[in-house]
Every structure is written in structure tokens, then in C-alpha cells.
From TrEMBL:
It comes from the Bacteria. The lineage of its organism: Bacteria, Bacillati, Actinomycetota, Actinomycetes, Micromonosporales. InterPro entries: AGP_Transferase, Aminoglycoside_PTrfase, Kinase-like_dom_sf. Gene3D superfamilies: 3.90.1200.10. This is Phosphotransferase.
Amino acid sequence: MDEVKVVVAHSERATLRVGDVFLKIDADQTRTDVEVEAMAMAPIPTPAVLWRKPPVLALAAVPGTALGRLGEPSTASPSAWAAAGAAARTLHDAPLPPWPGRGLDGIAAELDDECAWLIANRVLPTDLVTRNRQVAEAALRPWTPRFIHGDLQVTHVFVDSDEITGVIDWSEAARGDALYDLASLTLGHEEHLDDVIAGYGTGVDLDVVRGWWSLRSLLAIRWLVEHGFDPAAPGCEIDVLRARV
């Protein structure tokens, strides 16, 4: 029997790997509904759904290796990063999913709450939070809704020979800002933004991408701490915030 590997586990969900099968267990089946439907709609490679028996979703492993990992240098080539940008463009040009995404007002309110929490609990210096809140303002503007992945971090994009072989973890897919996906993809890997844009094409406002880097990091820290992750690890969210100062 193949070894059972725990890929991720916290109070909301867990993912196990057994051979070439991933078993995703989610306390909220609405997220699983979104994931299954989004993968069926997406015009880019996604994992095959093997079976579903709530609360478990079984997915086939995709070939290749992850584009990178947060906090570690990526060994992927510029061409692979450009291919990721091109895949993002293909997704963003696809028909919109029927369900909505997060609204601008809700994101702004959540950002205010998280900044207040970071300062009140002395998790980060006030000037660091304040400066990044200012940078984040660039992302808080009206956008044309696109079909976005919603969590397009480097570990969710797989490549082989500079080609995209699969994009995983679609539970956050929705209508949203295309530049949020590009910011998620390059978070902590800012040196590859030019490569991503080379594959993506036009329509990339760098100030907005930087705004999403700050905004995503500010929103993530409390969740990461409460679920046993370390946003202060080298190259991770707190370092992303420090880079904006």
C-alpha cells in the first residue's frame, strides 16, 4: 500500500495524498461545489475528478512540479513563468462563472478590520501596517470582473518542460479582479513578475499588483497564525510587507 502523506491539515480542511490520488476533506461543501464546477469550466489544465463522496473529493495528481514555493527561490525557468502568465490570461478571457466573488466594499472592510487587529495585538509595527494599508489602496478600485482562480499561488501551478500541466485548488474561484491572480502568483517572487507579464500580455497595472501584494499579506496574517502557519518565515507574508517600506 502506498504511503499516506498529509499535504495540509487544519481546522477547516485537510488534504491527503495516497500514491497518485489526492483526497480533499472540507468542512464546507460549498467550497467543494465551487472547486468541482470551476475545474469543469476552466479552459486550462486541471486535475481529473475521480470521485466525490462528501466530505471527501478524490482528485488525480497532475504531472510535473510546482512552479515554486513561498519563501524559497524558484528553479523554474523564465519560460515556465511566462507560460503561467499565458494560462492566467486564458482563464481571465473565459466566460464568467455563474457565482459572484467578493465585493469591493467587503474587501475594504475586512482590510480595515485586519489592520486594526494587527496593530491592537502588536503583531506588526504600526508604521509597517499603515504604509502597506496605503499601498493596498491601489487595489481598491472598480474592476471588470473576470473568471479568476482566487488562490493562484505558485504551489498551485504545475509545470513540465516549461508547459503548464495543471492548476490545482479551485475552491476560491469566482468573478474577480484579474490582477489579484497575478499578484497571488508572484507574491514573494517579485523577480518573476516581468516573466509573468511577458506571457500574460497587456493590461497589467504594476501599482495595482503591488497593492494586492500588500492587501493579500495583511489579510492573511491572522488566519495563518491561528492555523499554525508562520507568516514571519523568510520570504513569506511579513517579508512581503517589509519590502513595500
